[in-house]
Amino acid sequence: MKRVVNPSSGPQRRSPLSYNITQEEIQQFNELGYLVINDVLSESEMELLDHWFDHFTSGKEAHRMAKDFCDMSQPYGTPIEEFQLVNAMLPSYYRPELANNIYYKLALDMANQIYSAGEAKLDYEQFLAKKPAKKNAEFAMHQDLGYWPKTKNTWTATFSLALSDSDLINGCLHLIPGTNKEPKLRKHVPKQYEKEASSGSVNRDDSHTLVIESKPNEEIIYLPVKRGSVTIHDERIVHGSDGNKSNEWRKTYIMAFRDSETIKEERAMGFTHSHNDEVDWSKVIK
After folding, report:
1. May I ask the CATH class of domain 2-9+25-197+208-275?
2. CA proximity to 92, closest of 254, 266, 267, 261
3. For the segment 229-270, what is each residue's pLDDT rounded down to a tens digit?
4. Confidence of residue 138 (pLDDT cuts 50, 70, 90)
5. In the chain, where are the structural domains located?
6. What mean pLDDT do residues 151-180 have?
7. Residue 217 above 90 pLDDT?
8. DSSP of the chain, one letter per residue?
9. Which among 27, 208, 223 is positioned nearest to 126, based on CA atoms?
């Protein structure tokens, strides 16, 4: 087990609407598939985000979100009172007051520093909350690209902002560096059908949570971060997170940025990252 931090990052790199990413960090992102960036938002800037996070994860918009409000560790239809890993997709779509917040502006600036081949734009966002003392509130190891339809350009930078301290006890992000360089995606199957996958009788629409095939002797590293800091990972790196063994909530605000043309290609397929989309999953990369 190895913990990774980035002591060189911090508020000294921050200006009002930008945060400087170094060339060394860009190289690491391209080669290893991830970054840890400290102190992106100040405590005062987090307060508005706290309000909306609690608004959504408490279920106040559930009546109109359908599958966009769900438990990512259990099948769709799980009663709200039994949620363990609370997921609220596309919060700015349901409450536009959240759009263009300071986190979005800083993450967009960083994404365009990392991406040199085109224009990065916001593809989707989500709130994720692991309830206290829920050891099964975990994300199985996966690659994000396994969730998405085929597109010409797959480049993605996914930002995970810690709204609470994230550590080994409450299930921080962990990953396998360099797996972003594997030439093919690993096989993904819906979590509850993992044992039945060989029969071919799996239905992606029953649950959005996917599991990949594992390989022996792979070194997993852990990325603990403090509130206001972010991790950034690409679309191919193998990653996941454990359950929450602490007595506090583990709270994360995710934003994913992709090439502007890729987003247009997705939308033309009818894919918006809403769990309510009707998608032909035979087009998803295998």
Report:
1. mainly beta
2. 254
3. 999 999 999 999 999 999 999 999 999 999 999 999 999 999
4. very high
5. 2-9+25-197+208-275
6. 97
7. no
8. -EE---TT-SGGGEETTEE---HHHHHHHHHHSEEEE---S-HHHHHHHHHHHHHHHTTTTHHHHGGGEEETTS-TT--GGG-SEEEEE-HHHH-GGGTT-HHHHHHHHHHHHH--SS-EEEEEEEEEEEPTTBTT--EEEE-GGGGSB--S---EEEEEEESS-B-TTTT-EEEETTGGG-SSPPPEEEGGGTTTGGGT---GGG-S-EEE---TTPPPEE--B-TT-EEEE-SSSEEEE--B-SSS-EEEEEEEEEEHHHHHHHHHTT--S-TT----GGGB--
9. 208
Q: What is the mean pLDDT of residues 19-23?
A: 97
Residue 286 confidence class, pLDDT cut points 50, 70, 90? very low
How would you classify the pairing of strands 221-222 and 173-176? antiparallel
244, two tokens: 């929450």
